[in-house]
Amino acid sequence: MTSYEDAGVDIAAGERAVELMKSRVARARRPEVVDDVSGFAGLFDASALMRYKRPLLATSTDGVGTKVDLARRLGVYDTVGHDLVGMVIDDLAVCGAEPLFMTDYIACGKVVPERIADIVGGIADACALAGCALVGGETAEHPGLLEADEFDLAGAGTGVVEADEVLGPDRVRVGDAVLAMASSGIHSNGYSLVRHILATSDLDLESQPAELDRPLGEALLTPTRIYAKDCLALSGTGGVRAFAHITGGGLAANLARSLPPTMDAVLNRSSWEVPALFRVLQAHGAVAQPDMDTTFNLGVGMAAIVAPDTADEALRVLAARGVPAWQLGEITAGTGKATLT
Predict the structure, then answer these.
(1) Which of 86, 90, 141, 156 has minimal Cβ neighbours within 10 Å of its Cβ?
(2) What's the order of all strands across the beta sheet hosting 240-245?
(3) pLDDT of 120-154, one tens digit each?
(4) What is the pLDDT of residues 31-42, one digit of tens each?
């Protein structure tokens, strides 16, 4: 007789993983969450949206990319769950949306309950930090397609914003200030280049270059800073025109997405010092500056375009929230480009 377990799927391990993650998932909850005893769907009480005049739902989906390979190699699994939330929920923040709930999907070669619980626990902890609920998810075992220690994860989030408060390029004006919010590290973009540098240089995950205060692997797994509540706090000051989440493509390309076609963002490269981790990777990997600019966030994880007379107040708000921030540049007449000078 042949069983599902003979094919590589361990149902009991999946059930054990669910039990291990329950207490942490319970922390990622909002009052609007309604329990579905069947567990087949997540329920959210939409009557909470009645306080809006014209609520628009915002949705985003993303993954963590090849950063999961470094987590696998180092045996550290809770940080990539945190990264997933940052990638999904901070995209919602760009239009001014308040994040409401999120779901996740994990594919793995073999369900190791403790590993899955760490991944989902990291997702839940980050959801709580972002103010959204984790209302459901799925763990799929793919023996034969993935090796036993391989996994990938993705997520989707939903938020809400008042229709006449949607942020974006149409609000931007010449003379506006561009503010930078510091990243916590590489976040979750550019790891294919990171892995290439590790494979072709003298760097390894256990090494600690003199410029770093911890081993390289630990620095590379630093979880993504989550800006959702910070962006909402800034929006409350009334001067925000637009945000840009600095992900794949780098600072200039992502900021350009938040510009109208008749304006440019002129960014001052000397306004900040690129963190040591990026400098180490560039030096050891012999990476040209244009490639650095279009691959990594270089220390800027989120940018805000604000009315010039509100820039100082915005910086005070961010400082009070513990987010390092500075004026990165300004908006000029142009053709919809962002440039580093």
Answers:
(1) 156
(2) 240-245, 300-306, 177-182, 325-333, 263-267, 338-340
(3) 999 999 999 999 999 988 999 999 899 999 999 99
(4) 888 887 667 788
74: number of Cβ within 10 Å? 16
pLDDT in tens, 202-255: 999 999 999 999 999 999 999 999 999 999 999 988 899 999 999 999 999 999
What CA–CA distance (Å, rounded) separates 96 from 321? 18
Domains located in the chain, CATH noted: 11-34+51-162 (3.30.1330.10), 169-340 (3.90.650.10)
Cα–Cα distance between 117 and 295 in angstroms, integer? 31
Amino acid at 151: F
Question: Where are any strands of DSSP class E within 142-292?
Answer: 151-162, 177-182, 240-245, 263-267
φ, ψ (nearest 5 deg) of residue 174:
-60, 135
Amino acid letter, 267? L
Looking at the DSSP assignment, which residues form a beta bridge with residue 153? 106
Distance CA 190, CA 237 (A): 33
Q: List residues bridging with 242 in a β-sheet.
A: 305
